[in-house]
Structure formats: C-alpha cells, structure tokens
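Students often ask what a 'structure token' actually looks like in practice. Rather than answer in the abstract, let us consider ABC-type basic membrane lipoprotein, a protein of 366 residues. Its sequence is given first.
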Amino acid sequence: MSNDLTRRTLMKSAAAAGLATAFAGRSVAAADEPLGIALVVPSPVGDVGWGHALAAGIDPIKAAYGDKVKVTIIENIAEGPDADRIMNKTVADGNHFLIAGSFGYQNGALQIARRNPKVTVLHASGFQVAPNFSPFAAKYFQGTYLLGMAAAALSKTGKLGSVSAFAIPELITSVNAFTLGAQAVKPDIEVSVVWVNSWFDPAKEQEAAKALISQGCDVIFSNAQDTPSVISACEDAGIYAFNLNSSMKKYAEKTYLGCVATDWSPFFKASVDAHLAGTFKGANTFLGVADKVVEVVDWNPAIPADKMTKIKEIEAKIADGSFSPFTGPITKADGSEGVASGATLTDAEIVAMNWHVKGVTTPLPK
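Now compare that with the structural description of the same chain:
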C-alpha cells in the first residue's frame, strides 16, 4: 500500500483509467526459451497468508508447463524504490511475466509494462489497466459476509472486531460485508476496526487483537495479515477468529472460525496461456466464488446447525449470482443512504468503496 495514494485519489485515478484496448498478437519470448515468471511479494511467503496464496497459485503452472517455464519468487520487498528496482531487474534478467504482488507496487509495475510491451504484468489489488497490464483482486466480501453470519451466531457480546491492514477498498468492502452478514443474524451487532497500516507486523497485529478483545469483541476478523499473530492471540484468549487467503487453522485448533481462502491458479494459468499464445489482453479482473477463486473453508463445528444451513443457502445464491451482500437498503455509518432499496452495487462501485456501513463504529482513516 502506498501511503501517497489516498482513497480520494485512488477513486479519481480509477475513473480516469477505464479499460484499455488490447493488442493481440504481441510477440513473446522465443519458443525455445523457457518463459521467465517472477513473483514479487511484500512479506515472507511462509506457510500461510497472502504471499503463500500467490506462490501456491503458480504451482499448477509449473505442473502444466514443466521446463517451459522458470519461476522466481522474491519475498519481503517493501513498497517503494526498492520494489521498483527489483521488479525492473527481474525484467532485465529476462523474465517476461511479472506478478506484482502488492497494491503499493502499482506505479512502478505499470511503468515497467509501458516500457516493455513484450512483458505481461499482473498487479494485485490495483486499478490501472494497460494492454499488457492487468490488476486482479478477490471478492473477499462474498466470503466475509458468510463468516459474519457465523460470527453473529456465536457472539455473546454483540461486539465483533477486525484487525485490518490498510484502508483500501478491497479491505473496506471485506469489513462492510462482514458487518452486513452479522447484522443479517443480529441486526444490532457492532464492529470495531484497528487499521495497523502494515501487511506484516506480528507485534502490532497481536497488540491490536488484544485491544479489541479488551473492548469486549468476542469474534475477530484478521483482515489481510500475513502472519497468524491475530489468530494465535485469539486462540490464547478463547476468542473466535478468521482470516483471508490461506488456512491458519493449525494456529487455532479450538477457536478458528474459518478462512476466506483464495486460489489464484485459474487466473494465473489463463494469463500465462494467453501470454504464450500472444493473445493477452489487459483487463480489470475481479474474481470470486463463481470463479472458483474464493471459497470459505475450515468452518468451525461450533456454528449452530440451523445457522450453518442458512449460511450454505446464501453461499449457493452468491455462487449462482442471485444474491449480493451489497444489495440495498444499506445505510452508511454516517446515517446517509449507501445503497437504495432494491439496488445492487456494481463491481466498479464495490472496488471504489470508501465508506463504512452502519454498525462499523470506527471511522475510516483520513
């Protein structure tokens, strides 16, 4: 996350970017050379979290293409000049397929794409589009709505919490849907949020979780942390918790509520296929349950059976497109109308969301 990008400038830039026209038939690397694929991520790949999920998404490509691809994974790269330098070096070293695995890599990665038309760039969580540059994001909100229902079913205090990384639309929508799902079970439930402004800070994440627990929150959403710090702290306190991207159940055998897991392999594989065929077309890619990219796993058996039945019914409706968490009426936290009765937010409106729903008690950072 770039601290220079406020939510306001993000929305303006997104509106200006639009969808780029694609140029098919681009020349790619020589047929007798393996395709160099480079993944750059802001935290350790490890055994859990965002970086782990991205790296796992490349495994099916290696299985499908064997020695026709060569994969390089570079981890723990902070957003900023270092990331730009390292991404440029990966391309100079002959990698023609770059996965820029963090929101804050956007500007540098886009410049690489513009300077190198034979290189395909996938960028996580952004909004800019070019003929050889595709942002990609997950519809986490589809899963966090379901886990919000489960959280409300188990909560005794009526207070839920979230330790969240950065206040970007992708994570704001996750908190909002979590809140709406909980309110579908208990209308008066409230959600407090601590924004830690980091993708990887175990000490700060654990401190934030303990602060929420001390405020009476008895289910906590670890929103885009690459460490199990929140999950472990909740296990120690006997508090239910869930997270995004990959399962952390082994760090909370008793109180793990579930995981909004992501499988990026369908999107990564299709993008590599298109690159090799010379048909890649940059587009803003927003993938969810119906695309087999988002799935809730590791449901806690303590969730009451009748509530689990209802959750599964809603999950099926999300998958077939007959239900959206962002169908009105929805009221904003400031009391104004967020979504009119009967209206449903479009994907473009969701990816630009910069407001909280009623029930989220913590104001967004300025």
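One point worth highlighting: The first helix runs from residue 7 to 17. Ask yourself how you might have guessed this from the sequence alone, and why that guess would often be unreliable.
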